[in-house]
Structure formats: structure tokens, C-alpha cells
Specification:
Helix content is 46%, strand content 14%. The chain has five helices and four strands, in the order ααββααββα. The N and C termini lie far apart (51 Å). By secondary structure, the chain is of the alpha+beta class. It has a two-stranded antiparallel sheet with strand order 1-2. A two-stranded antiparallel ribbon has the order 3-4. The radius of gyration is 17 Å and the shape is globular.
Amino acid sequence: MRRMKYRAMGLFQWAGKRRENLKAFAKDMTGDEENWKDIVVQCEFVMKEYESPSDSGWLTFRLGYPGEEILVGTQGNFENTKEPSEAALIWAASFERCVENGVKVEEKIVYEIQERELRIQYAREIYGEFADRED
């Protein structure tokens, strides 16, 4: 079996440069890069990636199936959507980067999301639980 040079790791399955950035962040935060495994370190790192344009974990993906409306996954679209299912798909593709099966549609590549239907279901359930709460 061939081992990948950059295996994904952590809550958001960071790989490649993002993986190395997580380890460096853990070292800066705690003094030891092996502390990337700590859930607090990972949560702090995801917020750093989310909030910092220079260290952004965001990519732009066009999402969908041939024949349906194309959803463009960007941070701005994520923050402005009113639909939990759209937010889940944008987050999955453009931040987590769990895309597969790029298909050419209208001269552009459109990607599918891993576990798409399950992500939509969970997003709607979670949104339904918290949408009307007054905290």
C-alpha cells in the first residue's frame, strides 16, 4: 500500500499546507507541534483560518449536479445564505474541501460533495433545533 505524503488530520481533515499550518499554530500556541491533536488548538486554528484573509482556508468551488442550479461556494455566500442546506454544502466544499467528481458543465468544472444528502439532513436538523431559540 502506498502512503500519501500529506495525510489529512484533525477535526477538519487538514491536509498539505493547511496541515503544516495547523502544526505550526500548535507549536506557537503551546510550544509543541504535537499538540495539534488538542481540540482547543484545532478550534482556535479553525477560527484563525476563518477570520484571516491572508491565512484563509477558503477556496471557491462551483457545486451541483448537471441540470440543476449551480451554487458557488465562497465565504461571502456562506455568510449570507439563509438556507441551512446551502450553508452546509458551501462549508463542506469551500472550507473543508471534501469535494469529488469534478464534472464539466457549461465549460466549467462543477464538484460534488462527499456525503451530500447526509450533510443537508444534519444541517436542517441542527438549524431546526436552534432557529427559534431566544438566548
